[in-house]
Amino acid sequence: MFDFSSSPLLTRRSPGERSFGLIIEMLIVWGIAFFVPLIVGFIPGAVATVILGINGFSELLNDAVSSGIAGGAGTVDSEAVRALTERITESEGYRLTELFGEAWTVAVALFVCLAIQRRSLSTLGIERKGAAKRYAGGILLGAVLCSATVLVTCLSRAATFDGYRGNVNYLFLFFFLLGYVIQGAAEELLIHGLFMTTLARRFRWLPSVLVSAAFFMLLHAVNAGVTFLSLLNVFLFGVFLGLFVIRTGSVLGAAALHTAWNFTEGHVFGCSVSGFPAASGIFSVTFDAQRAVTNGGAFGPEGGLGCTMILMLSLIAVLFLPSLGGKRRGTNA
Hints:
mainly alpha, two-stranded antiparallel ribbon, disordered C terminus
């Protein structure tokens, strides 16, 4: 097995680093993860939704108001309001602005690292040397792993590949790709760059990986369509990403992998992404509603048994495959 304990990422230290109590540092990370997107992303998300989906918004708003007037002065049709809310939050415009809003998570995480903990970016796994190569490799690996998950799901007949969708707005897809670049960077920087390495300063690599993966799973626990299997897969994905970061000594490849996985799932194959509604993908995949355990149902392919199989193979690979240079390290755990 690869010797994760000797990873450069876990041994890097910056002169003058500041350390706080474990509980305080965990609260800082949780605060960034839960409250920054909520507070910062609400207003621009709502405004951008109105701009990007003005016709649907106006139509539903008119229905709510007119129904309320018909029901008597001062009343509002609660069903129309609920439909209005769902239309907004499930629109692609709202999702797009949520993704771009993750830039604030990146900014706050970097501020905590540089100004509060007084650590260098290299201790988070961010270095210029080899950055482009690592990022490109992560993009390729993420696209391959997600495509393999969809392929296995289709081969099991839990889903059907319908082919090219047609009438694809590639400019819109480009903006979604940029959004997923930001989201992938935000989640990996926060969870495996900041949180996992902070834990690794107090514990060994394995508990640090497992705890950060559990935190990653917790962030997805309230998503639509969530099941025990989908949460298990998210946890396994978190473990794989954590091991990948430690093994490569860089968070950049994991950020790229995360980006490619989400974009491929949602906008190449048009599937749901972690419970977010299916988007207008380049291709179309139809799920068998009776095979939700295999295909992931409303959560998307990453919530099914096909993904479980791919993730288990990925974990075996990151744990046991020798380095590309052919040098195998010891088996310390």
